[in-house]
Structure to design on (525 residues):
């Protein structure tokens, strides 16, 4: 007995930038395929030409590549089931053939209603405080091949009168299927409208096209968003009426991604409006030129973005949160995907990036950081502050204090530029004649040190304080302010060792000169 090769697909429409919810769909499909040694396909579902957006397909391809989601078959790599764009597959004639097969079996019909006629029906329904649906209750009073005679229908088709092909949904039938996440799901056919299968322009709709392509591409598992769950019964009927239930992939309907407050779906419009990206890459609208931010341009590591995304609706049942792609593949299962919507937490997204930042090699980060420092300092490579050994040590001190590499400069500017002003609150409270005298003596003590390490400078600092009848804590915060200008920062004596004897001496001397006017105050308690 042979086992079917697992084949999953991601089938987006190129109608704009790829939402992070779409990336999660692709990610779960990819993880499942890889875990079972299967294939992951990219199929572009571009049957709605009115909504096609230039550049969107390439954006989808670039986004998956940035995320490390490898496509085995698709428009960018080819494959045995090409073409992988539905607009190109239309000319093969399969969509029309399947639609006509449904008509021949009495499970679909031609509908000749104009948009204007249907709009009148909608307004009549609104007036009666109901909503219009083209279904078993309404189709008997509309202009279609069910109400027209065979001759009338044939004549309209012969005259090329605009028409669509609709699925004929039974009036009273229970429709059930097993979802990999939700288990047994049942709908009543009265909840299902007669979906359009072929549009007036001859293009198939999603409802027919994805089924034909899934069958022809031998897709075994179809992963998609929860928003498609209400359409699932129509899709089950199509498989049934075509005699393809044995070829139907297993469905998994993923939970929605919710806004940070949990109220409603996280939409494409929520991104920059709420202060965080909802797209993997930056997107420039080809018409309006409006720019929407992306995680890549916000300096997220792709591995952190993917790790964060995987946990929006899934976990492996343990406390572990940091997973490499290989670890995600090993751990992933649809049994652990939640049914309820997943609330997006932008602060948690930053936390994930911070964890990956901490795992980075300090020297590698330093190599990326050096050009930034050169630009900020307007210096060349001879400056000790852009030497790899110095910057690597600076990175080691700074990286636990930031979420992103691009925050290193602002967070640690004092490691590269001496302060010209000092925290006024600390100076007002702490600075006096005794503290000024202490720092003058600390310069002398530091000058006498042979080894200028974090340990030796801390010991020397404490001994000098005691010798001057001061508690080390009385002057510790002042020391940081004199060296950096601010009250918070990296480990103090690690910083002292990094700056070195000469720079520490110069910074203290500059501060003593700038604060000379404060020396007349008495020792503060």
């Amino acid at each position: 007995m042979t086992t079917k090769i697992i084949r999953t697909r991601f089938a987006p429409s190129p109608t704009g930038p790829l939402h992070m919810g779409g990336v999660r769909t692709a990610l779960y499909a990819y993880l499942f395929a890889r875990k079972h040694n299967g294939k992951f396909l990219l199929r572009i579902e571009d049957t709605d030409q009115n909504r096609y957006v230039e550049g969107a397909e390439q954006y989808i391809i670039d986004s998956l590549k940035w995320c490390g989601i490898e496509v085995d078959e698709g428009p960018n790599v080819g494959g045995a089931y090409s073409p992988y764009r539905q607009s190109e597959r239309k000319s093969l004639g399969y969509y029309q053939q399947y639609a006509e097969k449904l008509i021949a079996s009495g499970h679909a019909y031609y509908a000749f209603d104009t948009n204007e006629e249907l709009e009148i029906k909608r307004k009549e329904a609104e007036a009666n405080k109901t909503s219009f649906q083209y279904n078993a209750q309404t189709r008997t009073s509309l202009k279609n091949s069910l109400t027209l005679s065979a001759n009338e229908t044939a004549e309209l088709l012969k005259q090329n009168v605009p028409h669509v092909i609709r699925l004929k949904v039974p009036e009273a039938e229970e429709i059930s299927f097993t979802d990999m996440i939700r288990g047994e799901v049942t709908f009543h056919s009265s909840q299902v409208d007669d979906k359009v299968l072929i549009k007036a322009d001859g293009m198939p709709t999603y409802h027919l096209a994805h089924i034909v392509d899934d069958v022809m591409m031998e897709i075994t598992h179809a992963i998609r968003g929860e928003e498609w769950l209400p359409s699932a019964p129509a899709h089950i009927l199509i498989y049934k009426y075509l005699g393809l239930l044995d070829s139907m992939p297993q469905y998994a309907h993923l939970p929605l991604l919710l806004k940070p407050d949990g109220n409603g779906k996280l939409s494409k419009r929520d991104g920059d409006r709420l202060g965080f990206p909802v797209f993997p890459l930056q997107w420039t609208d080809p018409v309006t030129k409006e720019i929407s931010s992306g995680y890549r341009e916000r300096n997220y590591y792709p591995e952190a973005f993917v790790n964060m995304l995987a946990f929006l609706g899934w976990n492996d049942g343990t406390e572990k949160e940091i997973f490499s792609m290989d670890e995600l593949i090993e751990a992933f299962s649809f049994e652990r995907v939640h049914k309820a919507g997943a609330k997006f937490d932008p602060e948690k997204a930053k936390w994930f990036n911070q964890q990956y930042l901490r795992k980075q090699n300090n020297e590698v980060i330093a190599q990326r950081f050096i050009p930034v420092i050169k630009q900020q300092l307007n210096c060349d490579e001879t400056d000790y502050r852009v030497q790899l050994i110095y910057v690597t040590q600076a990175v080691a001190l700074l990286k636990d204090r930031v979420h992103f590499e691009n925050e290193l400069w602002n967070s640690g500017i004092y490691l590269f530029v001496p302060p010209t002003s000092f925290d006024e609150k600390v100076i007002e409270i702490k600075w006096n004649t005794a503290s000024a005298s202490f720092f003058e003596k600390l310069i002398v003590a530091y000058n006498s040190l042979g080894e200028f390490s974090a340990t030796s400078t801390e010991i020397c600092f404490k001994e000098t304080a005691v010798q001057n009848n001061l508690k080390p804590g009385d002057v510790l915060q002042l020391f940081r302010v004199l060296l950096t200008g601010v009250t918070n920062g990296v480990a103090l004596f690690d910083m002292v060792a990094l700056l070195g004897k000469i720079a520490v001496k110069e910074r203290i001397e500059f501060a003593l000169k700038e604060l000379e006017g404060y020396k007349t105050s008495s020792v503060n308690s």
Observations:
- The longest strand covers residues 174-179.
- Residues 492-514 form the longest helix (23 residues).
- The mean pLDDT is 95.
- Residues 461 and 476 are 9 Å apart (CA to CA).
